[in-house]
Input
Amino acid sequence: MTTLGIFLDPLADKILIVGTLAALAVQGAVPVWAVGIVVARELVAVDVRVRSPGLAAGADGKAKTVLQAIATAALLASLAWPSVGLATAASALLLAAVALTVVSGVMLVRRAA
Output
């Protein structure tokens, strides 16, 4: 574990999730507002971590990342196999992920304060 690795690992997760959601938004599969909320939270998180380098990731942030990844995978699966009927579940997972994204962002800012 290095300082650079501690910074780059979560950044890679953010880039992967945001990049995939942005690509899905371009195709019309994800609402742009949802991507905007995720991007805004991640920018705030990067800023908070730069200003508070010793601030550890909380369980809420880790759960947010997992839920975002599951929602993204469900969205991709619903596009790849539309006949399976995953679209409603994928949309619900995305809404839950966006809600947890907001909550975890608020909690991160509060922990840093």
